[in-house]
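TA notes, week 10

Several of you asked for a full example with nothing omitted. So below is the full record: C-alpha cells for the whole chain, then the designed sequence directly under it. When grading your own attempts, check the secondary structure regions first.
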C-alpha cells in the first residue's frame, strides 16, 4: 500500500466518529482556559475561524482547501466569505461528506470536493488566490515538496495559511514517538523549523502564532466534553468502534501538555 493509500484508509476509518463529535472538522479545539464553557464543536469552530481569518478572503476568490476533511471548514468559508472552494482529500468518506454538507448548507455551487494528493497537485500554476492546510501538512511525507506545490498553484501575491502541531520539548522522546505514530505524522517540526520550511519554499511569512497551551494543553477539557457525547456516539457507531477510537487517545495524549505546540502560519507568494 502506498503512503497516500495508507493515509486515505486512516481517515476513512477515523473520520466518521471525529466528524460526528466535532461537527465535520477533524482538527484541534481552542479553549481559553478551564472555565471556558464552549462545547467541543464550538471550540473546534473557534479554531477554524482563528486559522482561516488570517487568509483575508474576499468574495469570488478561489481557495484550495488542501486536506479538507469532511468539509465543514470549506462550507463555512464558502458561506461566510463567498469564495469558491476546491477541497481535496485522500479519503473517499470525506469527499462524500463534503458534498452532502455543501448541499445541505446551500453552497454546492461554490464548493467542489475531490480526490487529490497534495504531494503532486493536478492544478495549473497560479490557479488559486489562497491555499489552506488546516492540520493536513502533518501527514505530508516531505514538507518541502508539498509547500513547493502550494507555491506553484498560488498566483503571485496569493496567500497560504497552515496550522499544525509543533515540537516544543523533546525531553521525553518516547511519549512524542507514540503521538507521531498514532497520528501518522510525517514530521513534527519546531516552530522555527516550520518557518524555515515556509521561507525555503519561496514564501514571505507575514504572521505566526503558537497557541499550544489553548489547544493540546486543553486535553482534560477535550476529554470531559467528548465524554458527554459517548452514549450518543456509541448508539450510532457501536461499542467496538468507540473502544478503538478511545484507545487512540492513549497515543494522542501520551506527550506531556507542554511538549506539543500548535502553530498557525500565514505567508504570501511574492507578487
Ligand atoms: C487531520 S485531518 C484535517 C482535515 C480538515 N482540514 C479539518 O480541519 O477538518 C487531515 C486531512 O489531510 C488530508 N491529507 C493528508 N495527506 C494528504 C495528501 N497527501 N493529499 C491530500 N490530502 C491529504 C487527509 O485526507 C485529511 O482530510
Amino acid at each position: 500500500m502506498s503512503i497516500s493509500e495508507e493515509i486515505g484508509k486512516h481517515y476513512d476509518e477515523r473520520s466518521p466518529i471525529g466528524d460526528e463529535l466535532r461537527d465535520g472538522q477533524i482538527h484541534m479545539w481552542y479553549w481559553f482556559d478551564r472555565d471556558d464553557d464552549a462545547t467541543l464543536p464550538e471550540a473546534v469552530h473557534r479554531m477554524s475561524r482563528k486559522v482561516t481569518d488570517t487568509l483575508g478572503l474576499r468574495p469570488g476568490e478561489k481557495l484550495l482547501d488542501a486536506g479538507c476533511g469532511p468539509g465543514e471548514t470549506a462550507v463555512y468559508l464558502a458561506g461566510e466569505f463567498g469564495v469558491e472552494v476546491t477541497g481535496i482529500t485522500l479519503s473517499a468518506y470525506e469527499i462524500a461528506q463534503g458534498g452532502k454538507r455543501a448541499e445541505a448548507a446551500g453552497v454546492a455551487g461554490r464548493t467542489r470536493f475531490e480526490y487529490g494528493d497534495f504531494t503532486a497537485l493536478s492544478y495549473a500554476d497560479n490557479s488559486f488566490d489562497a491555499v489552506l492546510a488546516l492540520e493536513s501538512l502533518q501527514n505530508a511525507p516531505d514538507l518541502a515538496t508539498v509547500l513547493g506545490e502550494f507555491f506553484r498553484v498560488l498566483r503571485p501575491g496569493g496567500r497560504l495559511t497552515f496550522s499544525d502541531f509543533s515540537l516544543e520539548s523533546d525531553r521525553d522522546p518516547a511519549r512524542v514517538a507514540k503521538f507521531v505514530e498514532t497520528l501518522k505524522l510525517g514530521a513534527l517540526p519546531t516552530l522555527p523549523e516550520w518557518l524555515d520550511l515556509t521561507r525555503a519554499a519561496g514564501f514571505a511569512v507575514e504572521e505566526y502564532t503558537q497557541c499550544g497551551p489553548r489547544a493540546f494543553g486543553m486535553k482534560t477539557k477535550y476529554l470531559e466534553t467528548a465524554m458527554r457525547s459517548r452514549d450518543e456516539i456509541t448508539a450510532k457507531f457501536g461499542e467496538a468502534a468507540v473502544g478503538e477510537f478511545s484507545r487512540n487517545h492513549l497515543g494522542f495524549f501520551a506527550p506531556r501538555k507542554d511538549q506539543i505546540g500548535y502553530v498557525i502560519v500565514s505567508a504570501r507568494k511574492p507578487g
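The chain has a mean pLDDT of 94. Use that as a sanity check on your answer.
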